What does this fold into?
Amino acid sequence: MKRERLYFSGTRRRAASYVGVKIESEERLEGQPTIISRFAMIASDGQGQRYELNRPDSFWRTFGEVDLADRRQGLSFVRRYGCPLGVLGTTSADYDLSLWLPAQLPLRAAAQVWLPVDAAGISHCDMTRNELAAHALVRDTPKEVWDETRLVPSDADSIEPQPRAVTLRAFMVLSALYDLRNANMMRTCSQCGFWFTVRRAGALYCSQSCNVTGIKVFKVRAWKGTASHGDDSQTQDQGRNDDLSSEVVRARPGGEAPAAHEKLRKRKGRKSVRRASDNRGRAQRRRRPAQT
Ligand SMILES: [Zn+2]
It folds into this structure.
């Protein structure tokens, strides 16, 4: 199958912070209850880390699930992928998450087409509804999001231009469209909890970095005698290294870092000690012939 291309250069905002909540109240008609909405406000000092994506991915579904009133979920997303609109940390020092709604609502609707995860952890696309949902996504996504896309020469075949998303929200909408059109399977990453497109049977991790972190955690568990046995399906090649798994684990949507990650950090401390003793071991081995 030909590999689908979708390019995006983003800036993750690892130092983004929660600054408060914005409350909007709206009185529609006299005698009707007032509608009150809450939106988390987040800020970024402009520091960021660049990353590149070169194919569609399903983390748009995680974006769709973000509770915009929650003090952690939106923040976690921004720390991992940056501002969906590309303005936080550049033209805006802070904003409230109501700005995410116009792009989020159509994506949230699109996600309804995927069935609950099966016993293997896979969420399948309902192929009786994907086409209709794709049309709805195109119709309901604001026009300015479509304007945030370009065609550029592909790195695989330069005379066949491929789409580039100028903003993260455009990347997510285009990715959702690919997922609907191809009825892609999804699952949540065993390490960071973000949704990703399942391209290989048995894939457990969203990215190379989550794969590496996940294997370390697995080894630590095995080392401590708590691993389940017989699972050797840990090696993945998701073709993407966004080097962020540890960051996301610390601030995953709706939760604290899992205990396994604590173990990993402790393990990292031990690793340097172990490496030092390994070096001594090698040095001694090299000297030994000279002594005899
Ligand atoms: Zn992950």
Notes: The chain has nine helices and nine strands. Residues 8-19+38-204 form one domain. The first helix runs from residue 60 to 65. The beta strands are 8-12, 17-26, 35-43, 49-53, 94-96, 149-152, 162-165, 186-188, 195-197.
